[in-house]
Write a structure and sequence with these properties.
Layout (H helix, E strand, L loop, with lengths): L7 H7 L8 E9 L3 E4 L4 E6 L6 E2 L4 E5 L2 E4 L4 E6 L12 E5 L3 E6 L17 E6 L6 E10 L2 E9 L6 E5 L9 E9 L3 E3 L4 E5 L6 E2 L4 E6 L12 E3 L4 E6 L6 E2 L4 E7 L3 E8 L11 E6 L8 E8 L4 E2 L5 E9 L10 E6 L6
Antiparallel strand pairs: 1-23, 1-28, 2-22, 3-5, 3-21, 4-20, 5-19, 6-18, 7-8, 7-17, 8-15, 9-12, 9-14, 10-11, 10-13, 11-12, 13-14, 16-18, 20-22, 23-27, 24-25, 24-28, 25-27, 26-27
Length: 349
């Protein structure tokens, strides 16, 4: 053998091949370059399903971000939807036409003169009749009270705009239960918006909704056009998880690193080159790779792709440089494995 050091002699004894005429270097399997998956939008992580060392494929679920649900404030009908998933929620996303068609601004000034009729409470069911001829009737609920003034919203019946009505506590419109009068107006549709960006729409134009029903869900920040519109985040890479940067319950913003991964097919060999052997290693040189597998009979071919220009010190204090080799992964080779790089004697001449 022309040159050797360290464990080279022990390595050569392992192989009944022409390796006796080769230069042998110790090395290890390392990732060529890690890639990161970043949060496509912001929010609080409900969970993170990864851990370092896990094998992951494109499309695998990795985490879930909690959404903000924008809900209907009352029963009604969705009238006009002006946004879709991916749009900003800061604008008017939709309008909600309340079931209550009419609103009555009333006072107790014309109520029957008794202590009971001079006091009203929010939530009371009342009975409404027009003052003109009594032909227009409705049922309503008191929704707001401000001293002697109060507001009634109808839940059934038909009235005319701008007409004057009397309001009663009894179904038979007994004058002794009259708690005031007021003027009818059309209940305004409610514009609904939110914060951040819309991840999912939950209703359609013309759909009837109930109070507390989810209209749409939002997340923080802008959403890129190519981002999946779902709260479950799925891996965009395949490989081995190198590091998980976040955990469940943590708040993230768009662009934050969720995890880094060593993509499939990016493992390389890093090997040590003592200064005295530096001239024996050349970029583009064909080499053979041996593992500590007892069953390995045939070396794996590889190619030297790079040699560092910056040295490190060995245990003996002599300069050591790094060489790098690309090779074909047979499927059972993993990051961190020890290998031996063999350069044929003929290649050094």
């Amino acid at each position: 053998m022309k040159k050797c050091w360290g464990l080279a002699l022990a390595v050569m004894l392992m192989f009944s091949t022409p390796a006796f005429a080769d230069t042998v270097f110790e090395g290890r399997i390392v990732p060529d370059e890690a890639v990161s998956m970043r949060a496509p939008f912001g929010g609080v992580l409900k969970r993170m399903d990864l851990r370092a060392g896990s094998v992951i494929s494109v499309g695998d679920p990795v985490a879930e971000i909690a959404t903000t649900r924008v809900m209907a404030t009352e029963d009604g009908v969705v009238t006009g939807v002006f946004a879709e998933a991916g749009d900003s929620a800061e604008q008017t996303v939709l309008y909600l036409a309340p079931v209550s068609k009419f609103t009555i601004s009333a006072t107790i000034s014309k109520a029957y003169s008794s202590p009971e009729t001079k006091y009203v409470t929010i939530g009371e069911t009342v009975y409404i009749r027009c003052t003109k001829d009594g032909s227009h009737k409705a049922i309503g609920k008191i929704t707001a009270v401000d001293d002697s003034a109060y507001t009634v919203e109808t839940v059934a019946g038909e009235l005319y705009m701008e007409e004057t009505v009397n309001i009663y506590r009894s179904k038979d419109y007994n004058s002794k239960t009259c708690i005031g009068s007021g003027k009818v107006s059309r209940t305004s549709v409610i514009p609904v918006s939110g914060t951040g960006s819309i991840l999912r729409m939950r209703v359609e134009d013309g759909e009837e909704v109930e109070r507390g029903q989810t209209l749409f869900e939002t997340v923080e920040g802008d959403i890129d056009a190519l981002a999946a519109m779902e709260a479950t985040l799925r891996s965009t890479v395949s490989g081995i998880v190198a590091e998980v940067s976040v955990s469940g319950g943590q708040k993230v913003t768009k662009g934050d690193t969720l995890f880094t991964c060593y993509p499939n097919g990016t493992l390389i060999i890093e090997f040590d080159i003592p200064q005295d052997f530096l001239s024996d290693v050349k970029i583009g040189q064909a080499i053979q790779v041996y593992f500590d597998f007892e069953e390995q009979k045939t070396p794996i071919p590889g190619t030297v792709t790079d040699v560092s220009y910056v040295s490190e010190s060995s245990e003996e204090g002599t300069p050591v440089y790094k060489g790098y080799v690309s090779f074909e992964n047979t499927g059972d080779i993993r990051e961190g494995m020890n290998v031996y790089v063999s350069i044929a004697e003929e290649a050094n001449r």
